[in-house]
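pasting for the record
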Amino acid sequence: MTKTPRTNAWRAGLRRGLIELRHLLRNGKEMSGHLSNVIVAVVIAAYVDGDVAGTGTPMAHLVLAGFAAYLLFQIGLINLPQILVTEREEGVLLRLRATPGGIPAYLVAKCLLVVVVAVGTLVLLLAAAALLADGPLPHGPGGWLTLLWVTALGLLAVVPLGAAIGAVLPNPREALALIMLPMLGLLFTSGAVLPLGALPVPVQQVAAVFPLKWTAQGLRSALLPDSARSAEAAGSWELPMVALVLTAWAVLGFLLAVPLLRRAARRETGSRLSARHRKAARSGALPA
């Protein structure tokens, strides 16, 4: 059977993703960055006292569920764009222009890398929290199933979007500054750290547009007892709405990611790359 270009792109992307995963596991600096996020979440949860008002659920459990959602969000919408911008500056997109199916294969590889890292980090967080801070775990098969599909949809909602953002950010030196402040704002306004019902109604309405709020709500439904739903703004977990909003963001991300990456690759030339390197060298960001 003749392989189609799409099949070849998937195969090439999976091979590239596995290679990048091996490199990541051998890179102690990058691995320590992901581990530090887990450590920070567990330490904060260990020092949080009290219960969520009117539920009897420990506030520490709500914080851990929120951190679980934020870790997925961070890896997709902070780490991935930084990786893409850095590799663009290193000439990766320029080389992909000459590779048939290069952009789809590249996107598949990055999605594989990010999904494996995100799921691994989530598993480590839940295990460490359960062992060290009496953290929450799903109750029964239904809870585990909800955890699985919310995690999958949560990643689908942010990974392609992160790729699209990475395709349009100007350079690695400005990327973190441009995306970090909005992401931190969403962390505190999406119910990931504080009960959403405690926030002003306009803040709740803005947060409801973005996927972090729904990912956090879905993970809380999987990790917290059913009594905790009374602390939600709607008084319920709203799982159908969780699925609907995350699916909508996933579709939007996929519609944006490949065209924007292709556009970024088309615009890349050797002269553009050299000009950016010279500018960075003059500013002191790179050695002259």
